[in-house]
Design a protein that fits this description.
Blueprint: H1 3-22, H2 32-43, H3 45-63, H4 69-82, H5 95-124, H6 132-141, H7 143-186
Helix pairs in contact: 1-2, 1-3, 2-3, 2-4, 2-5, 2-7, 3-4, 4-5, 5-6, 5-7
Length: 187
């Protein structure tokens, strides 16, 4: 647990909360997917789970949630932890390739979120009969939300991944270059 990791985790939590609050007028378009994936890929499965959970709890404290919060919270927890599967393999991987991998994982995460939370809507939401037809109707009626989340994540995940990954990868080199330039200038 380095200072750099804690700073990144805190920044991702803030981005997750702020993004969800700013985008709340757009159903199922949010920044929780990208912060969950970035935490898992850059910091490992434990941080992925922690960042995901803190982001959703923090934003829920401000904008609220529904009776299925255990399903939504556990979905984000699973996505954050599982995103470590897409963990960076080496520092030599191009940022765009990592962002593309994150986007693919974002699609998988979106489908997982849809499947799990709509099961929760059917299970405890009280909107659908507890039959196979009721479960099917729950999934059918949620397709517009799935579409929104997929479209949002196809834009948000690669965009923010590129920014965060490039900063994570090149900021130390930039700091070193600036320090060397300052030392050279003083000489």
């Amino acid at each position: 647990m380095t200072k750099k990791n804690i700073i990144l985790a805190a920044a991702l939590i803030a981005l997750g909360i702020l993004g969800r609050i700013v985008l709340q007028a757009y159903p199922n378009i949010e920044t929780l997917m990208v912060v969950s994936i970035l935490a898992g890929t850059l910091l490992g499965w434990r941080w992925g789970a922690v960042v995901s959970l803190f982001s959703v709890i923090g934003s829920d404290m401000m904008i609220g949630n529904t009776a299925i919060l255990l399903y939504t919270w556990s979905a984000w927890l699973m996505i954050g932890a599982a995103s470590a599967v897409a963990k960076r393999r080496s520092g030599k991987t191009a940022v765009w390739a990592e962002a593309l991998r994150n986007t693919g994982f974002g699609v998988v995460g979106t489908l997982l979120f849809y499947a799990w939370t709509n099961f929760g809507v059917w299970h405890i939401g009280g909107l659908y009969p507890h039959t196979l037809a009721g479960l099917e109707l729950s999934y059918i009626n949620a397709l517009p939300f799935l579409r929104n989340q997929l479209l949002g994540n196809l834009f948000i995940v690669p965009s923010l991944s590129v920014v965060v990954l490039a900063t994570w990868k090149y900021l130390p080199q930039l700091k070193t270059a600036v320090s060397r330039a300052l030392v050279t200038a003083k000489s």
